[in-house]
Fold:
Amino acid sequence: MNETVRLLQAHHSSRKYKTDPISAEVLDAIIECARRAPTSTNSHEISLVIVRNADNRARIAEIAGGQPWIAQAPVFIAVVVDLYKTGLGVEKAGAEQVFQRSLEGIMAAVSDAGIAMATLMTAARAFGLGTVPIGGIRRDPQAMIDLLELPRNTFPVDGVVLGYVAEESPQKPRMPIESYRHEEKYHSEALKPAIDAYDQTLEAFWQKIGRTDGLSWSANMAQHYGTISRLIKSVAQKQGFTIEV
Ligand SMILES: Cc1cc2nc3c(=O)[nH]c(=O)nc-3n(C[C@H](O)[C@H](O)[C@H](O)COP(=O)(O)O)c2cc1C
Structure:
């Protein structure tokens, strides 16, 4: 099989790392891959903050709600939506940036952040590194903003952990393809059977790997999508992001 396809289809998050450093050459190449990724309207509205300092990684592990892999692995990259940068361009051209005050602006910027994340992870894995995306930094975005000294109109959306893997994790099963791939139109009738099947598959997977705290997909969704953190809204507003349009 084509090596890139094999790499993508073998994706799994890794949460046990060696402390071995990543060479500057490898890290530079990974970052260059993400810098070459597309951005909406060539906005360049993403910036990365590379965190290697052990104390700072330990702090981020704490901010993310106690995620030891952030402290263990040698590199954490914060993916920052950067409408400060674009604002400087708008200002230079004699106008006032309003994009950060729109749903369109937030959707475009978060899409670009996702592309940067995926590119960083794929490039890292091509170098034999393990990765795990980290949205947990949004548990306390103000602490991340303070730590990284982020200016107005920026937001630390996600991060990614990079390191050499100490212990491989098994690949997590996915929901049946019918819930994901829709031909010509959306097939809502495919969802409930797919969800039932996946709830069973995931419960069997947790049993197989000996995880006693593993939830079915539905229960996991109820836990995470049944509540909303209000903190993110107030911090985002303070940074300059609102949805007025
Ligand atoms: C945007 C995003 C944020 C995530 N945040 C975290 C996180 O904070 N901590 C973590 O351990 N995993 C995090 N994950 C990893 C998911 O839990 C993981 O991708 C999912 O369970 C599927 O497992 P897999 O990646 O091993 O296939 C995140 C994934 C994404 C895409």
Remarks:
- The chain has a mean pLDDT of 97.
